Amino acid sequence: MNFRSTSLFRLFSAGVLAASALSLSSGAAAESLEKEYLQILQQARSDIIVPAHAQLSAKVQALKAKTTALCEETNAQSLEHAQQAWREAMQTWMSVSLIQFGPLQEQDRRLRMQSWPIREKLLERAVEALASGSDPLQAAINNGSIAIQGLPAIEYLLFGKNALDKLQSADQGARRCQALTAIASHSVDLATELEKEWKGGFGDNFENPFEADGNLSVPQESVDEYLNGLMTGIQQITANKVATPMGLEGRSAKLKALESFHSRNSIANIRNNLSALRRFYMGGDGYGLDDFLLSRESAAMHKKITGLLDGVDAQLAQIDFALEDAVNDAEKNAKVKKLYEALRQLQAAVEKELFPVIGVTRDFNSEDGD
C-alpha cells in the first residue's frame, strides 16, 4: 500500500470514523481512543518492528559473510552453510515484509529486497546475464533490474540447478561468485536503510505523529497505515503464495510461481508470515490490537480473530511437505485447499469486521485487483 500524506480524505475520514465508527460522544472519549492508538503504535515499533529490522540487518550481513566464505572455498559444505544463512535471512524477511507501508514501499525497497512475484524465466535470464557478463558488478546491480537484486537472485545462485558445479566452473565460476557476493552486499545496504528509517525519522513519526515531523499527523493515520499494511500482507499470502501457484482459483497450477521455488522454502515462508502476523496482532508481549478490542468491550471480535488464526495454524500443522509436492497428490492437495479456505476466512474477517471495530479505513491496494 502506498504511503499517503495529508490528503483531505485522510483528515475527513479521521474525524468521521472517530465520531461514528466507535460512537465517541465526547472529547474525553476521543482523547482516550488516541491514547490507546498511541499504545498500539509504541508497542509495535519498539518491541516488534525495530527488532525485526535489526535482526534482518544481522541475518543479511551473516548471509554476505557466508557467500564470501563460499567463494573463498567453494565446496558442498560451504554451499550448505550459505544456503542455511539464506534460509535464516528469509525467515526474518517474512516478518519485515508483512509491513506493507512506509520505508518498505519507498524507492521500491520491497521489490529490491525480494522481486516477487516474478516470472521464473525473467529471473533466470537476468541473473545469468549478470553472472556471465563483464560490466562492473556493483554498479550493474545498484542501477539494474530488480530481478538481479535481493533474496530471490541469491536463492537462484545458491539453490538453482547445478549451483555448485556452476560456482566451481573454471570459465564462469569466479564471476558467478563475485555476482553472488555483490548481490548480498547490496541486500545489506537495503536492510541497513530500512533499519535506519524505523529507528529514526519515519519510526518517530509513526509512533507519535503529534510529536515528530512527518506525513502522519494523528495517531489514527498511523494505525490506519499499520492495519492496512498487514491486510495487504494477508492478501499476498492467500492469493500469491497459495491460490495462484497451486491453481486454486480455477486456473492451472504454476509451480514456478511459488515463492522461494528453488529452495523449496515456500511453506516455511508462510509459517513465518503467520507467526509474525499473530505477533503483530498481539502486540508481542505488550499492548496490541487484542488489548484494544478487549478495552472497547469487543471480546467477541478478539475471540473470532484468534480463533481464525488458530484455524490457519491447525491447517499449517497438517502440511509437512513442500507445496510443490501437492499438485499431483490428491490427499496433499486437499490439505492445501483447507489452508487456503482458512486464510480466506481470516482475510474476510479482518477486512470486513476488524477494521470497523478498530476505527480505521479499509484502503484500496494493488492486491485488490480491478
Automatic annotation (TrEMBL):
Record-annotated Imelysin-like domain positions: 49-349
| Signal peptide extent | 1-28
Q: Which UniProt keywords apply?
A: Lipoprotein, Signal
Keyword Ligase carried by entry: no
Specify whether Lipoprotein is a keyword of the entry: yes
Q: What cellular component terms from Gene Ontology apply here? A: cell envelope
Location(s) in or outside the cell: Cell envelope
Top-level taxon in the UniProt lineage: Bacteria
Q: What is this protein called?
A: Predicted periplasmic lipoprotein
